[in-house]
C-alpha cells in the first residue's frame, strides 16, 4: 500500500516540475502590462520594441520584470540604466531623459544588440563573459539605448507601432464549436442540437430512427383472455410482463380473489 502511494506522488510531481521548468523559460510578458510605444525592425532577426512605464523608477520596473521571470543575469541597481539578460532577448531598462518620472523598457533581440550597441557602454552593466559570447570580439555600433537615440543613433529607425505590432499578446481562447455526445454512443452518433436560447436542457430531441415497436396478438390456446387482447413484443433485459388473463377464485367460502402469478 505505501508503495502505491509513493508511485502516485511521483506521477503528480513529474508534470508539476515540468510545468515549473517551462514557466521559468523565456522572457516576461511586457506587452500585457505596459503600452508599446515604438518599434524598430530589420532583417536577420534585428528587432527592438519600446514600452513605457509611467511614474515608475528604473529599479522598480526591473524588479517587477525579474519577478515575472528570473533572468540569466541582472545588472546592479542603478537609477538610470539596468539590464536583464534572457536566452533570446536583452531588456534595457532606462530612465526617459525627456520625462525623468517615466521609465522606458527596451526589449532587444541579441542580433539587434550585437549590430547596434556600443560594447564598451555595456561593459559597465553586463558580465564580460556574456559580452564576449554576444559580440564575438567585434565592435559594430555606438548605440546606447532608446533614451539617447538622437545622440547615439542606431542603424535602423524607430516608428510608431501599427495595429498588428501592438497585438503582442495572443488571445487565450479561440472560437470553436462544441458538441454533445450521448453516453454510451459511438463517435459517429453525436447530438449537438440545443434550444433556441442556447440552453442544452431545452434541446430538441428527435425520436430515434433505428428503434421500432411491434404489437402481436396473443395466440396461446391456454390463455383464457379474450381474442382481442394484445401484448407488446419487447427486446429487453427485463422480465416479460405478468399475464393479463382474468383472476381466478379460490374455493373455501371466503370469496378471496387472487391474481394468477
Automatic annotation (TrEMBL):
PROSITE patterns: PROKAR_LIPOPROTEIN (PS51257). Residues 1-23 form the signal peptide. Residues 208-247 have a biased composition (Low complexity). Keywords: Signal. Residues 184-196 have a biased composition (Polar residues). It comes from the Bacteria. Residues 159-261 are annotated as: Disordered. This is DUF4247 domain-containing protein. It comes from Brevibacillus choshinensis. The lineage of its organism: Bacteria, Bacillati, Bacillota, Bacilli, Bacillales.
Amino acid at each position: 500500500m505505501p508503495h502505491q502511494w509513493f508511485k502516485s506522488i511521483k506521477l503528480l510531481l513529474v508534470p508539476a516540475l515540468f510545468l515549473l521548468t517551462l514557466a521559468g523559460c523565456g522572457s516576461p510578458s511586457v506587452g500585457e502590462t505596459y503600452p508599446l510605444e515604438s518599434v524598430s525592425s530589420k532583417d536577420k532577426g534585428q528587432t527592438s520594441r519600446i514600452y513605457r512605464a509611467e511614474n515608475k523608477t528604473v529599479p522598480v520596473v526591473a524588479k517587477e520584470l525579474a519577478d515575472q521571470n528570473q533572468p540569466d543575469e541582472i545588472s546592479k541597481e542603478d537609477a538610470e540604466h539596468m539590464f536583464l539578460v534572457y536566452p533570446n532577448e536583452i531588456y534595457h531598462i532606462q530612465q526617459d531623459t525627456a520625462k525623468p518620472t517615466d521609465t522606458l523598457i527596451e526589449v532587444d533581440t541579441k542580433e539587434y544588440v550585437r549590430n547596434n550597441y556600443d560594447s564598451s557602454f555595456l561593459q559597465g552593466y553586463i558580465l564580460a563573459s556574456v559580452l564576449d559570447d554576444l559580440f564575438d570580439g567585434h565592435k559594430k555600433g555606438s548605440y546606447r539605448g532608446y533614451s539617447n537615440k538622437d545622440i547615439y543613433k542606431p542603424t535602423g529607425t524607430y516608428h510608431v507601432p501599427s495595429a498588428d505590432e501592438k497585438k503582442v499578446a495572443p488571445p487565450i481562447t479561440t472560437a470553436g464549436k462544441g458538441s454533445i455526445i450521448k453516453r454510451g454512443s459511438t463517435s459517429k452518433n453525436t447530438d449537438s442540437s440545443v434550444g433556441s436560447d442556447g440552453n442544452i436542457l431545452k434541446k430538441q430531441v428527435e425520436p430515434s430512427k433505428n428503434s421500432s415497436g411491434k404489437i402481436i396478438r396473443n395466440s396461446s390456446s391456454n390463455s383464457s383472455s379474450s381474442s382481442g387482447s394484445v401484448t407488446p413484443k419487447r427486446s429487453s433485459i427485463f422480465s416479460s410482463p405478468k399475464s393479463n388473463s382474468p383472476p381466478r377464485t379460490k374455493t373455501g367460502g371466503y370469496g378471496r380473489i387472487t391474481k394468477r402469478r
